[in-house]
Amino acid sequence: MENQNQEQPIRKDSNKIYFLVVVILALLGTNAYLFFKDKKANDRIVTISDEKSVMQTEIDKIEAELDNASANNIKLSEQMQNDQSLAREKIQELRTALRKGELTQGQLEKAQTDIKQLRYFVTKYTADIEVLRKQNITLTSERDVLKSAVDSVSSKASDLERQNQELNTKVLAAAALKTGNVSVSAFEIRNNGKENGVTRANTAEKIRINFSAVNNSIAEKGLHDIYIRVIDPSGNLIISNSGGMFTADDEELQYTYKTAIEFANDGKAYSIDWANPGKFTKGTYTVMLYADGYTMGKGAVTLR
């Protein structure tokens, strides 16, 4: 009986020990669970942070490629401009999403999918830009070749025009009337209307210019204007009321008297009278004849 009473306290102590062991083991298990759970969570945070960093780097590369493709100074179509704008908007959306403090697994996977699509677009966009660049090079080369050909044709046309102009000038010069012998004499007019040749200045009232036209088969037959310039002994042009301006030998000149002759390419002799509106003075008077824009001939008379 006494032994049974001694065994009961021993059993109670053993039960307490077993209970404490179980409690300790439970606590250790809980701590281990919490430790591994926190470690797994920490590992996941690190993994997500690494993935965000990788994605940000990829976005930077994609944007740099987009900038490089857009810096080629290529004229884009309206569709390509819209595509570029959409790509830049997507890049901004992804940057904003990655800047958030936390991302769910679904958000992370969506961002990764968006980046892949963006990479595909930029790769295709860059390829399209390269095609346009090569087309521009080809078009520029063709344009330069065409411009060179046009310049060459234009140069040849200018040369032909210049040659034609020179030839035309030569033809006009060859077709202009020229004089044979030119003689100039002075006359006085008496009261009865008769004319006497004189050599004195105080009796001279007019001069007569006699000349013949050199035969010229390419000269136009018909009336030709004749411009006369009379230079006095002092070297001054005598200008009368009937005087005016004309062009000869590429110069604009003033004439003393103007008339016309009928040219028939028959060697005909002509006579032109000019009455001095003023008084003749002693010395030599020079007479210049012009026709068809060129000098025709000249003569002179000396009065005492």
Automatic annotation (TrEMBL):
Keywords: Coiled coil, Membrane, Transmembrane, Transmembrane helix. The chain crosses the membrane at residues 17-36. Residues 52-97, 150-177 form a coiled coil. It comes from the Bacteria. This is Cell division protein ZapB. It comes from Daejeonella lutea.
